[in-house]
Amino acid sequence: MKSARVLALALAPSLALVACASSSDSGAPPPAAGSAGAAGASGTAGMAGSGAVLEGDYDPAPVGGARPAKVYVPGSYLAGTPTPLLVLLHGYGASGIAEEIYLGLRPIADEKGFLLVHPDGTIDASKRRFWNATDACCDFGNSQVDDVGYLSGLVDEIAARFTVDPSRVMLLGHSNGGYMSHRLACDRSAKFSAIASLAGMTWADDARCGSPGPIAVLQIHGTADDTVPFDGETFQGTAQPSAAATVAKWAAFGGCAVGPTEAPALDLDRDLVGAETTVTAWSGCKPGAAAELWAIQKGSHVPALSRAGMTRIVEFLLAHKKP
Fold it and tell me: Cα(174)–Cα(254) distance, rounded to whole angstroms?
């Protein structure tokens, strides 16, 4: 990679630092693979008698074939009971497990009762993992790997093994993973109910997105992001929209008649004082569609998201079901 901006997309070191710094904020540590309280495909009881949240574990049998990934199963999982599924997509140069440690999703999966999978992208010539998302990011070697097919198949395989709620199959992506979440919303809107993109944009050319069906879209972006700028830019000759334009595109696709309007601010970033995140939302959308922008004022490309902040993001995803 010759571009300093491309090099900055390699997230693994930054994620490790932020994850370490967040250890005092994340509550109880996530369970290790093989720990007590594991929940396999056969399921477990729901809440413990005391009302405590049961800890889950990874199912020992991977999914994904030649590109294996393991499914984290919450302690409350019960076979036969429809359970939401969240697919977590890492940033360029990171990995699924590094992204999960950074965001701290396993304890939230136990609390909220959803299945979680965090697969890995393929490795490029510079030895960094990536997703082939949009023309801006991040198949820099032009491999043309079919990540839409891989991730769609992964969801199908998980649904064949577990009782997945088809009305709540969700995506959460960071940076390159955010771009990939938008790509899947464009290409597979019938499969996914909602996406949340942290610092990743959609196509600049609406025609590349086609005519997606209704889907809920949440864009989370730091206004001081110097890797994927909040206001958009041309990157290595490829245009990409701003964070606001990205959400406006989804509002248009979703037939949202009212907006954008301001909603109460949120406190997502524990390193920034007060309710630093402004919320802009559209309404009057088609059933199943939603469009919101959560702009972290002075937030970076790798914000220090609090446990409460991550929970708010997950709650947005869970609240938007396929009709």
Answer: 23
